[in-house]
Amino acid sequence: MEAGGRGSRAERLAAIAEAAHHLRQEAEGREPSPPPSPPPRPPPPPPPAPGRRRRGPVCPRQRQWLAAFVASLAGACGGMAVQYPVTALPLLQGEGEDAPVWAGVAPWRDALFPTGELQGAQAALVGALLPVGALLGSLPAGALVPSLGLRRPLLALSLLYLVGWAFIFLSGQGRVR
């Protein structure tokens, strides 16, 4: 390092350590000796095989971004689940142009709705099932999170959302426009 020059931080620290070493030896009355050498650096990693490039992630936080995206999808699915009955109820009650839309929705529709269309109380039940289920489901979920963590319940509930939306998507009719 040049006298009066700035140099890198490592050079400055090495110069300070060398000066301290010399001062310590002078204080003890010994002839100054060279300071101990720093430990050797580890060798660099070997180059990749011919024809192959060493590739790292495109984004260093790729897994974190993916996890945040998947977690936000759970919220989006929740919002769509709240909205879907509101838009589907008029069709399920026979008030749309292609109503009733029961073909392909579920094989047990005749047992639940013998007339083939939702009546007033049945429509209210369809609209109220999601909030009631959310209220009742939050109680065991709150007890399971400390023991299972946050990731496992989120993945399990995402699978349930996936199955529910697959049923809606695969129903023969019943598309909400």
From TrEMBL:
Q: Is Ribonucleoprotein among the key words of this record? A: no
Residue ranges the record marks as coiled coil: none
InterPro entries cross-referenced by the UniProt entry: MFS_trans_sf
Region of interest called Disordered, as start-end residue ranges on this chain: 1-57
Q: Does the keyword Transmembrane helix apply?
A: yes
Q: Which Gene3D superfamilies match?
A: MFS general substrate transporter like domains
Compositionally biased region (Pro residues):
32-50
Sequence ranges of Basic and acidic residues compositional bias = 19-31
- Membrane-crossing residue ranges in chain numbering: 65-86, 123-145, 154-172
Query: What keywords appear on the UniProt entry?
Result: Membrane, Transmembrane, Transmembrane helix
UniProt-recorded name of the protein? Uncharacterized protein
According to its UniProt entry, this protein's organism is Gryllus longicercus
Q: What is the lineage of its organism?
A: Eukaryota, Metazoa, Ecdysozoa, Arthropoda, Hexapoda
